[in-house]
Specification:
- By secondary structure, the protein is an alpha+beta fold.
- The protein folds into 2 domains: 92 residues, lambda repressor-like DNA-binding domains (434 Repressor (Amino-terminal Domain)); 211 residues, Beta-Lactamase (2-Layer Sandwich).
- Helices cover 50% and strands 10% of the residues.
- The protein is built from 15 helices and 5 strands.
- A 5-stranded antiparallel sheet has the order 2-1-5-4-3.
- Strand 1 and strand 2 form a beta hairpin.
- Helix 14 packs across helix 15.
- The C terminus is likely disordered.
Length: 327
């Protein structure tokens, strides 16, 4: 689908979700055949002609100025992420550069240093397509301990978090409210797709997920946009049990982002996360490898990590305070 068609779909879906009463449009008690605002009502709110807005929504208008887009965004009551997304879609519609396969993403040295400093805080480095570029041992154990710790070092075989959330049963079972996590992933990919319309690898990922997951295809068609920031999820970890984890994304706007997982102080979730960090650290020490380094620098062989952690975790639970370790 080209940029103009995506822009039209986004405008239509947002218009159909905006109720007249929410936009201050009087209906005088009339029965309406379709939900949401009519095109002419939205155009009036945005201060543009109904014919112009109709052409824009139908993908027939060659362009729209930033001022017009801001007016439409205001009429649709878009938040800041959605407003930026609207502008990105409009720019995509104006340019027709061919798709290209970008070079493999790399982790800047400063980001590697940050990953080391975070130590026992579960952390992963994600590329723009949610490829896992690096992780520390707690991050690996929390998010995908069933995978090889060294996997991020192989560009052709890097884990992809979007793919894991939708297609990997282990990761899916980690989230008590899986649909919430899944919608956040799709919303992020929507933002990235509008910012990088020529990314062939991203298009391949979206095509694969749409073909293999009906849930992804449905969420993608919903056109919801969500920039990564911070969200709290109830997780059901196979080693330490249930815990509430806040996943926060740190990004400079350029290059990879770092996702860290934190828990509330003095909570059962903090105890569980501490046990997990202890288990992964001792498991790595057993294997004679540094505990906090990413794959490729003291990486565990495939199939290790979680099996070691299970035995360590059982002993750690025995020394934990009652009512917390078994959570």
């Amino acid at each position: 689908m080209d940029g103009k068609a995506q822009l039209g779909d986004f405008l239509y879906l947002r218009r159909s979700r905006l109720r007249p009463e929410d936009a201050g449009v009087p209906t005088y008690g009339e029965r309406r055949r379709v939900p949401g605002l009519r095109r002419e009502e939205l155009a009036l709110l945005a201060g543009v002609s109904a014919s112009y807005y109709t052409r824009l929504e139908q993908g027939q208008s060659p362009s729209a100025s930033p001022e017009v887009l801001d007016a439409i965004a205001g009429a649709l009551r878009l938040d800041e992420s959605e407003r930026r997304y609207l502008h990105d879609l409009a720019r995509t519609g104006r340019r027709r550069a061919p798709a290209r396969r970008p070079a493999p993403e790399r982790v800047p040295e400063a980001t590697r240093q940050l990953l080391d400093v975070l130590g026992h805080v579960p952390s992963i480095v994600l590329g723009r397509r949610t490829d896992v570029l690096a992780w520390n041992r707690p991050g690996h154990a929390l998010f995908a301990g069933h995978l090889d710790f060294a996997a991020p070092d192989l560009p052709a075989h890097r884990p992809n978090m979007a793919r894991l959330v939708f297609l990997d049963g282990h990761v899916r079972d980690l989230y008590a409210d899986w649909p919430s996590k899944a919608r956040a992933v799709v919303g992020h990919l929507r933002v990235v797709a509008a910012q990088h319309p020529q990314d062939a690898a991203l298009h391949e990922l979206l095509g694969e997920l749409s073909a293999k997951s009906a849930e992804f295809a449905s969420m993608w068609a919903d056109h919801r946009v969500r920039a990564c920031s911070g969200d709290t999820y109830e997780m059901r970890h196979p080693l330490v049990g249930p815990l509430a984890v806040t996943q926060q994304t740190m990004s400079s706007g350029r290059g990879p982002s770092v996702v860290i997982a934190t828990t509330e102080a003095d909570s059962p979730s903090r105890t569980a996360l501490t046990l997990l960090a202890q288990a992964t650290g001792e498991g790595a020490a057993r294997a004679g490898r540094p505990p906090a380094r990413r794959g490729g620098h003291g990486a565990a062989p495939a199939g290790t990590g979680c099996r070691l952690d299970l035995r360590v975790d059982d002993r750690a639970k025995g020394s934990a305070s009652p009512g917390t370790a078994g959570r």
